[in-house]
Every structure is written in C-alpha cells, then in structure tokens.
Amino acid sequence: MKVTIGLVQMSMAADAAENRKMALDGIRAAAQKGAKIICLPELFTSPYFPQEEHADAEAFAETVPGETTAQLSKAARENKVVVIAGSIYERHDKKFYNTAIAFDETGRMLGAYRKMHIPHDPLFYEQDYFAPGDIGYTVFETRYGKIGALICYDQWFPEAARIVSLMGADMIFYPTAIGTVEGVEQSEGSWQEAWETVQRGHAIANGVVVAAVNRAGREKNMKFWGGSFVSSQFGTVLKRGSDHEEVIIAEVDLSLGKDVKEGWGFFSNRRPETYGKITEKKK
Asked: Which residues are catalytic?
C-alpha cells in the first residue's frame, strides 16, 4: 500500500497560541497536498527553552488532554488526516514530560508517547525540564499502517527503533529539535550528516519508513538546520527539506518493508538469546 506523508517544518514564536496556529495552517497545507499522515516537530508550541538551564518554562506546560490536543483533534477530523502531534511540554502529576500524541482521521486520540532518552549537554539541558518517559514505547494503529513515534534524542538509539519495529511499526516518525550551537565546534564531523545517516540506518535495519521532522530558524544561540526528510525502508531519501519553514510531502510504499525484512532476514535471523549485554547497566 502506498501512503503520502506530510512533515510540517516550523520556526517557533514565543507565543503558544501563535505556534498552534502555524501548526494548524501546516496541517491544512499538507492535507491539501494529499498527505494522509502529518507530523509536527518537537515542542512545536514553544521556543526551544531547554537551551537555557532552569529557565521558567511553566507557561508552556499543559495537560493531555488540553488546549493543544483539542485543536489538533479538530484539525485531524476536519482535514480527514492522521496527525502525529510532534511533542508538547506535558504536565502530569507534578512531573513534566516531552510528549507526542497521535490522532486518527476522525479526531480520536490514539494515545501518547513520552520521550525516553533525555539529553543533557550545552544548550540541550533537557534533564532540567523533562522526566524520562514512563509509559513505555508506543505503536499507533491507523488505517494507513502502524506508526511508531519516537522523539529527537531517541533517534540516536537503535534499541528504540528496533523495539517499535518489533511491535509492528511500518513507519517511525521522529519529531525533532536539533541544530548547531554557536561557539561549539563540530569537531566530530557534520552533525546533520550523522543525524540523517543514523536514522537511515534504522530504516534499513528494521525495514521501516523513517520520517524525521525538525525545527528551522535561529533561536538565541542555536540554528536549527531543518533538513526534515523521509527515508524508504532501504535508506533511500525520498524527500529532504531545506533550512526554512516548509511542508515536505513524500509518498511511501509500505510493501517495500516486507520485501526488506524477508529478503535480508533482519528479523528472522535475529539471535536475541545473545543480546543480554544490551540490557546490562553501564558500570
């Protein structure tokens, strides 16, 4: 089965209501271009506040359900599309999470995923704000296939991609907020190339479509590089975005995933009895 994906690459304002409006406009634009599954970036209702240590971000925290989920549910229903609501700053039981929410084409909330891997580096001080996810990995069943939703830093961990793939995901969406940091040299090489390459590797190793949607534009000391892309199940980039705000549209063929899995034996030849080292705590 073929399905059209839409990625809404955004630059965020300081005002949550303005960001929600931009997101709704992006969903509408993607739907008009034929997209049936539409994804927004990480923390799309707010500036990227974790670039500061212990900033006052309370104004951006909200509950699920809440104002953002209500508006996105309506947008999914009116445009008859599946929406992966990037992620928002969720307040729940005195804790805060980085949370993605999914809606089907009727506006029904399919569920949520709370970011598991939380970075803590210069200008990515996320452990000051987010508790690690506590509801496990999630795969959403839709009329267009099964969707795994992971968030930004999760991109670097092959275990997360493998888990949602073993749970049956046909596609993995990665809402993202990543860019270059003023004053920090990319001494290892191009961060953007590594970011794209590791995700294309997840696509190949698991026989899944990978779609990553990033922020764009400058926020204080960070330049988000955009570059949102859709990869086939064998690592072919079907569409790649610029470094500006835009809606990226790509058609994917889900049948290719079965061909990759069966043809290359990446699942049938697994040796899980030898993988115990993966679950050991680092000493």
From this structure: 42, 115, 152
